[in-house]
């Protein structure tokens, strides 16, 4: 029955993705006309200002695609794995773990390359994820959406203090961290993208491939075990995939919050909560939302840019509040 | 029991006095107690008078007053909302104040006490927003036993609002020039080190007005805790009382934020700690504990990090987060109820 809506939604998502990519290439402080873009694609001219702008926007758009896919899939995976509709790499403290690890790396070991950022980001995100989950699970009510969110917020606050302290100890780090702490797509080039691509691909394959297991987990651990799913092993593998995705996204763009919360919920409204449809469509629509947020951020307050991390938070907070308000019980 | 009731506040007063003394004497250069006393009494001692009277003593006084105000503000919110997680810094009220102040710094170049109006506006707006959502979330629906208590979902609302404000603040910081951003970030962490006598006077003045107001409201707050229906039948105007308490709570935290920045988690820590050591909620103990926390954090920050000065807010933040997690793990119903 749902085959046709799914087909329709997929086609719509592909069109939206194409539109978002084109907008991301053309719109900005200097708007490039469509025919100039066509010219650039046919015969690139380094002397043309339009073409140079396009080239830099192409890097930015590709980074947006990668980060959008990574964070949206990570959010969907987290929501399914923890049966928690409020799960998001930002809310559960993964972003702040990665950020704190990067800051520690910058301070202690003078990290500067994206590979080093990424390695630190993986470790930080993984540690934060384990810490938040363990603390929430240790509370009397177990790992409910509420305890997970509170634990995530507390870990975020504590790590925020750590980052502040490091910034104070090293005044030179202030500017780097200040700009990096807000998620932005404009700071990376193709080499950085290539460096994180393997981690991103592996993470995406793991999460996309876990659709059936996630469907089974949605029924509860016991039911999933009854269906032949190794619950513990699945969680570990999924966790590794999610950490790979978050680490890659954070090292590319800094902490971008709420994208992983918003996109899966929007997709659920479109095609329901079967992960076999949910996950691929989430991966398509994540970059659409991120790129559009980035485009709006470029034009909303000229001449400066509003970083994409600010835009996603402004978009995501109302959605978060509506999710809390409309659900009688916060549960999937 | 009565001796214990007297003993605890007395011990805490001694702790505050001890920390005040430590804040004035310790550091580089170390100031000998007899010289410090003579400087405080008005004698001009080269090299000592300035350090004591213009640098360390105002910081110590502002630290004590700010801690007390935050402790009171946190306890007002925690008691009113019947949730230990509902302190102004956890539910986003402090961040609302901070965001409004940073906006004023960035756009209007506002500084000093001009920030107060902005912290007040931001704090009140955020408190009303969060409470409006909280009203819609009595556990079990309206009239079903919840009677004004709010559940943890409402803390989630505060966390979400706080995340939004954090994004706004970081955007504003990224737009500022480096020097201004450094100042703003320093203020955002919360620090009493740069305190001056005029600021201490503002804070003291606000406490002189607000503490009697609060003392007058505490009796009503206790009645409110019996539940909205009981309170109404006892003749208490429930919505008006609640709004008055929220305004006093926000005023207490807004003044402090304007003077010392948002000192993370002090408002959250003081109330539960007071309840823990006294086995009962107490505004007096919460105020004293708040002062102890800020002073201790400031003394540690000034003296334990070599040539760097660590702002008190960094230390209270680093200590507050584990405590919040510990409360989460320890509490029977994930922090709801009491």
How would you describe this protein?
The complex is a heterodimer of chains A (332) and B (338). Chain A has 332 residues and is mostly helical. Helices cover 77% and strands 0% of the residues of chain A. Chain A has helices at 3-26, 34-42, 49-81, 94-109, 114-138, 145-169, 172-181, 190-209, 211-217, 221-226, 231-253, 259-271, 275-300, 308-326. Chain A has a single domain (3-326), classed as ABC transporter involved in vitamin B12 uptake, BtuC (Orthogonal Bundle). Chain B is mainly α and 338 residues long. Chain B has 13 helices and no strands. In chain B, helix 1 packs parallel to helix 12 (283-303) and helix 12 (283-303) crosses helix 13 (312-330). Chain B is globular and about 65 Å long. At the A-B interface, helix 5, helix 6, helix 7 and helix 14 of A face helix 6, helix 7 and helix 13 of B.
CATH topology of chain B: the name is: ABC transporter involved in vitamin B12 uptake, BtuC
In terms of DSSP E residues, the strand content of chain A is: under 5%
- What sequence of helices (H) and strands (E) makes up the elements of chain B? HHHHHHHHHHHHH
CATH class of chain B: Mainly Alpha
Strand content of chain B: under 5%
Which pair of chains has the greatest number of interface residues, and how are they split between the two chains? A-B, 53 and 53 residues
How many β-strands of chain B, per DSSP?
0
Percent helix of chain B, as a range, is: over 70%
The major beta sheet of chain B can be summarized as: none
Can you tell me the overall shape of chain A? globular
As an assembly, this protein is heterodimer
Gyration radius of chain B, rounded: 20 Å
